[in-house]
């Protein structure tokens, strides 16, 4: 998951992950009778593949064996030991020598997964993008696409000593494999390849094609990896040519006294807005009452004084999650339930969104799943103590709420800036026109992104969401509930939108004993091997269930 300042995320679901985790408690789920006539969060029964062979049954057993466990430890550990760091200032592939390490990673995969490499077609896209295709016997079926990224967040030299085990050691302590990339997301990449390797060994022959697409610069937002891979696939297969995509993402959380797998079916949008205040310079011994820095500060104060209100669009996955909570979780708050049931009549586009306001009280990590965030992150102005600043620059980061657009953010900030411009007699160039003397100029940076199209989660029509849900409940049992998740950050899937509406950002591996969420992007990243094995088993089942699905 990416986290750079340029287009950064904290982690998926933001701190929700942590707060849910902290409220973890052991609870035996018992079905409660839904009080509403039509269930809004029906749960799919466990789905097992019906096409069985002796070899496939033996494979299922092998994946649970200690031999396979040990083999997985080796594979994941060795993958972590190859430091495939992607730095913010990375140059082009072929020019910047720091990309060369990805050849080592590719060679490692080739040596470790011989059946995958002899059975699937491998295309190298922009040198390090790895695209594996396994043709199905029925070419009329849309292929399943599984994603992961090869790169990892760099480990700053200054933090190396803080690691309990060195960041690229792949140290195994009997439960966890330690190191950068162990959980973000070499575990998922290795798990996918392990699942496919074992399926080939068990003579599985897919009817539906399977594509694996592994980018190499996700942590710096994917311009050379995912962007190229996605257009390559688009060119080869066309728009809407993929049945479903699963990429790294959200996992399983205990919330409201129940256990929920929460595949990310939506992502917030993103935009950085740059504000430039130009005012006359001069000697600071004879200053005007307000100079560029003062005026910029006034605008910052206004921006902070007018935050966005929580608002739950009908498409926001958090609304779906609340319906699941109301119907299945014993500790779902009574007040939320009342507001939820009354929502159709009380929710109005222009008024306050009472449900969102109430839900947001759970904390800022929950609030920002339904609120556009705004944060003034960078300010520059002035160069000398005796000279008035002529040019002051502010950058304001926004994560755009589902149901809103980057243009809404532009409108709002234009209104605030026009107030200040008017007060100080400055020209306002709002998203058009050039900087001029005595002006405020607003521009959006190139990396703006609208909120992702929300993946359909209706149940009852045999959708990919159902197959994903049924696979999850087949693996973990039916006290595991599945509910829609929303992410505050973005994954490589942002380049893949034209290929399918069925995109899931999901880490299916769950280890109930895992203490604390395996840290990502910081010191002591580690991956529970139990959760890793569960990931392999999940992918193995999911591939087979998708193969049989009538989509
Ligand atoms: C797996 O490794 C453990 C020690 O880490 C060992 O006790 C066990 O025998 C191994 N299992 C197999 C099948 O090799
Ligand atoms: C339900 O919505 C109606 C219409 O907005 C409102 O008058 C009523 O007070 C609401 N009931 C509850 C329990 O919130
Ligand atoms: C505002 O600025 C314009 C030129 O930019 C100037 O002609 C005008 O006199 C100014 N008005 C005030 C009230 O300062």
Note down, in words, how this protein is organized.
Residues 1-19 form the signal peptide. Zn(2+) 1 binds at residues 184, 219, 521. Belongs to the peptidase M20A family. This protein is α/β, with parallel strands linked by helices and 551 residues long. Among the domains are: 54-84 and 92-248 and 492-548, Aminopeptidase (3-Layer(aba) Sandwich); 269-308 and 372-444, Alpha-Beta Plaits, CATH 3.30.70.360. It contains 16 helices and 18 strands. The protein has helices at 16-22, 54-63, 66-80, 101-112, 114-119, 186-201, 226-237, 292-305, 317-328, 334-341, 343-346, 354-360, 364-367, 406-423, 464-476, 529-548; strands spanning 121-125, 129-134, 144-149, 176-178, 210-215, 244-250, 252-255, 258-261, 264-267, 269-278, 373-381, 391-400, 427-430, 439-444, 480-482, 485-487, 503-506, 526-528. The strands form 5 sheets. It has a 6-stranded mixed sheet. Strands 11-12-10-14-13 form a 5-stranded mixed sheet, covered by helices on one side. Bound molecules: 2-acetamido-2-deoxy-beta-D-glucopyranose (3 copies).
Question: What is the element layout, followed by pairings?
Answer:
Elements: H1 16-22, H2 54-63, H3 66-80, H4 101-112, H5 114-119, E1 121-125, E2 129-134, E3 144-149, E4 176-178, H6 186-201, E5 210-215, H7 226-237, E6 244-250, E7 252-255, E8 258-261, E9 264-267, E10 269-278, H8 292-305, H9 317-328, H10 334-341, H11 343-346, H12 354-360, H13 364-367, E11 373-381, E12 391-400, H14 406-423, E13 427-430, E14 439-444, H15 464-476, E15 480-482, E16 485-487, E17 503-506, E18 526-528, H16 529-548
Parallel strand pairs: 3-5, 3-6, 6-17, 8-15, 9-16, 13-14
Antiparallel strand pairs: 1-2, 2-5, 4-18, 7-8, 10-12, 10-14, 11-12
The protein binds 2-acetamido-2-deoxy-beta-D-glucopyranose (3 copies).
Residues 425, 438 line the site of one 2-acetamido-2-deoxy-beta-D-glucopyranose.
């Amino acid at each position: 998951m990416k986290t750079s300042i340029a287009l950064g995320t904290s982690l998926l679901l933001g701190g929700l992950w942590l707060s849910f985790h902290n409220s973890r408690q052991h609870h035996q789920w018992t079905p409660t009778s839904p009080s509403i006539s039509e269930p809004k969060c029906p749960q799919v029964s466990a789905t097992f593949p019906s096409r069985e062979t002796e070899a496939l049954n033996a494979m299922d057993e092998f994946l649970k064996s200690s031999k396979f466990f040990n083999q997985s430890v080796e594979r994941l550990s060795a993958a972590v030991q190859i430091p495939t760091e992607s730095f913010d200032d990375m140059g082009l592939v072929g020019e910047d020598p720091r990309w060369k390490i990805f050849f080592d990673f590719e060679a490692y995969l080739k040596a470790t997964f011989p059946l995958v490499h002899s059975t699937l077609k491998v295309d190298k896209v922009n040198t390090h993008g790895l695209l594996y295709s396994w043709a199905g016997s029925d070419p009329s079926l849309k292929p399943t696409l599984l994603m992961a990224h090869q790169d990892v967040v760099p480990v700053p030299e200054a933090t190396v000593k803080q690691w309990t085990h060195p960041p690229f050691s792949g140290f195994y302590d009997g439960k966890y494999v330690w190191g950068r990339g162990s959980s973000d997301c070499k575990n998922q990449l290795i798990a996918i390849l392990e699942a496919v390797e074992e399926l080939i060994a068990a003579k599985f022959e897919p009817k539906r094609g399977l594509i694996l697409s592994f980018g190499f610069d996700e942590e710096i937002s994917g311009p050379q990896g995912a962007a190229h891979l996605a257009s390559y696939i688009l060119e080869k297969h066309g728009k809407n040519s993929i049945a479903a995509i699963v990429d790294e993402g959200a996992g399983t959380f205990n919330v409201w006294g129940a256990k929920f797998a929460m595949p990310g079916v939506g992502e917030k949008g993103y935009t950085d807005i740059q504000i430039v205040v130009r005012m006359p310079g001069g000697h600071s011994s004879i200053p005007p009452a307000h100079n560029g820095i003062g005026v910029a500060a006034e605008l910052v104060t206004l921006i902070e004084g007018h935050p966005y209100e929580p608002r739950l669009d009908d498409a926001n996955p958090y609304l779906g999650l609340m319906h699941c909570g109301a119907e299945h979780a014993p500790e779902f708050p009574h007040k939320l339930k009342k507001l939820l049931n009354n929502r159709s009549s009380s929710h109005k586009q222009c008024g306050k969104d009472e449900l969102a306001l109430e839900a947001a009280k759970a904390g800022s990590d929950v609030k920002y799943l339904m609120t556009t965030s705004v944060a003034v992150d960078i300010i520059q102005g002035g160069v000398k103590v005796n000279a008035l600043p002529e040019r002051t620059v502010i950058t304001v980061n926004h994560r755009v709420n589902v149901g809103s657009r980057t243009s809404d953010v532009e409108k709002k900030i234009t209104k605030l800036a026009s107030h200040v411009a008017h007060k100080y007699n400055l020209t306002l160039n709002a998203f058009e026109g050039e900087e001029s003397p005595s002006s405020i100029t607003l521009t959006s940076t190139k990396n703006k992104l609208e909120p992702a199209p929300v993946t359909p989660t209706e149940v009852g029509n045999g959708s990919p969401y159902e197959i994903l849900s049924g696979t999850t409940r087949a693996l973990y049992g039916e006290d595991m509930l599945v509910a829609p998740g929303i992410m505050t950050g973005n994954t490589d899937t942002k380049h893949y939108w034209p290929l399918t509406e069925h995109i899931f950002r999901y880490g299916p591996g769950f280890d109930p004993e895992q203490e604390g969420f395996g840290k990502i992007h910081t010191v002591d990243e580690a991956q529970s091997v139990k959760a890793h094995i569960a990931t392999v088993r999940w992918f193995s089942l999911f591939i087979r269930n998708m193969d049989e699905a009538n989509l």
